[in-house]
Design brief:
Helices cover about 35% and strands about 10% of the residues. By secondary structure, it is an alpha+beta fold. The longest helix is centred in the last third of the chain and has 23 residues, at about 60-85. It starts with about 20 loop residues before the first strand and ends with a helix. The model has no long low-confidence stretch (mean pLDDT about 90). It binds zinc ion (2 copies).
């Protein structure tokens, strides 16, 4: 085994291979890697800043899952709001429901 080099810039990654700290990411169904520390930064999640192995609309899987849960909660609130009668909405507004 020689020195592992970055797939992007060809610098040594400082890692020893798959499962030994090497960083691989998947973009558009294609694996890219191993990556050095500098290049792996280009593949990070725009929300949490962690390296996103797979990118889902710009975010890592964890953030995508979290965002989806928040969206579901929001959608529930929204739907609930639209199910209220106008009298119910007035009451809700007085309660500070927005
Ligand atoms: Zn690199
Ligand atoms: Zn993330």
């Amino acid at each position: 085994m020689g020195i592992e080099c970055c797939d992007v810039c060809d610098d040594p990654t400082g890692n020893a291979g798959r499962g030994e700290g090497s960083i691989f990411v998947v973009r558009n169904g294609k694996e890219i890697g191993p990556l050095c520390d500098v290049c792996s930064g280009d593949f990070s999640c725009s929300q949490c800043g962690e390296i996103a192995i797979e990118l889902h609309e710009g975010y890592c899987l964890d953030c995508t899952t979290q965002n989806q849960e928040e969206l579901d909660t929001h959608n529930y609130t929204y739907t609930h709001w639209h199910q209220l009668s106008s009298a119910g909405r007035e009451k809700a507004i007085k309660r500070g429901y927005t």
